[in-house]
Design goal:
alpha+beta; five-stranded antiparallel beta sheet; 182 residues; 4 helices; 10 strands
Length: 182
C-alpha cells in the first residue's frame, strides 16, 4: 500500500496549486450554486451569486487617476463565498462572504477582505426582497494614492504611514435585517 501512496503524494506535490482559471468545476455544481428557484441571481463573469442564488454581488474597481472597470468572478467558489480579480485571473483581489446569521442576530451578514489599494464599490443585493425593503447594500472604498518617501522620513514611518495603508476588512453583521423568517 505504501508503494502506491508515495507516487500519488509525489504527484500531488509536484502538480502545484490549482489556479483560478484552471479549476475543473462540474457545470452541474456551478449551476446549482449560482441560481435557484428562490433566488433571482444570474451568475456571469462579473456577477457572483451566493446563498443559492439569493444574493447578487458585483464589484467595480477604480484607480487614483480615474480608470475603472468591473471585477471578474474567480472560479471555483462556494455557495457562501467567492473571490474577485481585476486584471489577471490568477491574481485574486477581494474575498467576499455572505452568511446566514439568522440564528445569531436575525440578519444575513456580509464580510469582505481586500488585497488591493485600488478603490472599490461592492454592491450586494438580496434578489428575493422587494424594493420597499432593504434589499441592497453598497460598500465604497476610495483608492489609495501613494506618495514618494519624503526627505528625512524614516523607512519605518514611510512604511507605517503610506505603504501599510490599505482597506479595512468589511464586517457587516447587520447587513440584511429583513432576510430572516419571522
Amino acid at each position: 500500500m505504501l508503494g502506491v501512496t508515495v507516487p500519488i503524494i509525489s504527484f500531488l506535490l509536484l502538480a502545484g496549486p490549482v489556479l483560478a482559471g484552471e479549476a475543473n468545476v462540474p457545470a452541474s455544481d456551478l449551476e446549482a450554486s449560482s441560481s435557484s428557484q428562490s433566488g433571482g441571481c444570474v451568475e456571469s463573469d462579473t456577477v457572483m451569486c451566493l446563498q443559492d442564488g439569493r444574493y447578487e454581488a458585483t464589484l467595480e474597481w477604480m484607480t487614483p487617476d480615474g480608470r475603472a472597470g468591473e471585477a471578474k468572478v474567480a472560479r471555483p467558489r462556494t455557495s457562501d463565498s467567492g473571490l474577485f480579480y481585476f486584471f489577471s485571473y490568477n491574481n485574486w483581489e477581494v474575498l467576499l462572504k455572505v452568511l446566514d446569521g439568522c440564528t445569531f442576530n436575525g440578519h444575513h451578514w456580509v464580510y469582505a477582505a481586500s488585497a488591493s489599494d485600488l478603490g472599490m464599490e461592492l454592491v450586494v443585493r438580496d434578489t428575493t426582497l422587494p424594493d420597499t425593503q432593504v434589499n441592497a447594500k453598497t460598500y465604497t472604498f476610495a483608492p489609495h494614492s501613494r506618495r514618494a518617501q519624503m526627505p528625512g522620513e524614516s523607512d519605518e514611518d514611510y512604511q507605517a504611514n503610506v505603504l501599510a495603508k490599505g482597506h479595512p476588512a468589511l464586517t457587516d453583521s447587520s447587513a440584511f435585517p429583513d432576510a430572516c423568517e419571522s
